Task: structure prediction
Amino acid sequence: MNRNPVPRWKPLVLGLGAALALGTVTLAQQGGPTSTGTPPSSGTAPAPTVPSTTTSETSGSAVAASPAVLCGLTGQEAGRGAAGGTATGSGGTGGTSGSTGAAGAGPGTGNGSAGAATGSNTSGARLSGVDTCFAQQAALSDLFELQSSQLAAAQGGNTRVKAFARQMIQDHTRTSQQLASLAPRLGLRLPTALEGPKLAEVAALRGQQGAGFDRAYMVAQVNAHEQAVNLFSAYSKLGGANAQLRAHATRSLPALQKHLQAARELLRAVVQ
Result:
């Protein structure tokens, strides 16, 4: 007879302890909770870091590529060296919807665009991609100048800005008509409306008045004429294969350089 019988509750306690120990090991192997209270991994990857926005993105305006670069004319940055400095600043540029343009070889009215010209190439020389790109970008340059300057003549607050705008209308109407007169002979179709960043600049400038308009318009004029000088200079000296278009670029370049210098000087005056 056993004088020290084992109490009935001891086997139960020992069995429960073993079960708890086994459960802890199993949970640890499966990534479950441990005695430290660390929750199990959910298996979900951490949220990606949101990249910071750039200045151009936060301003809501797209950045236009240089016309010379678009056409593969990567020569000298002629415009940035003339009279020194590059204009920077905020504010769009723009134009009106009722500017005078050129349709075909003659003047016309409409949305301020150089009229589309179509036809067969009667010059006897096949146009390269660079030739066609130059003609299209030159037409867009005239379009922008006409639309933004007509708006400046109506909404500008500074008398010198208004006078500059009237000169731009006169000069770029002439070059627009000259380019449009070449289009049928070269089999070119020129753009009839702005798009992309330049169209956005037109829309932005329409909502401004007075001194704010003057500053935004002149910033745009400096930038636009820098691009035009670079484009016309590079095409006439480096990449122009078509004699008629090259002559147009060479003939137009001095006036564009003069416009650029005048725009820089006027910009300094309106920001003081």
About this structure: The mean pLDDT is 71. DSSP finds nine helices and two strands in the chain. Strands lie at 100-103, 106-109.
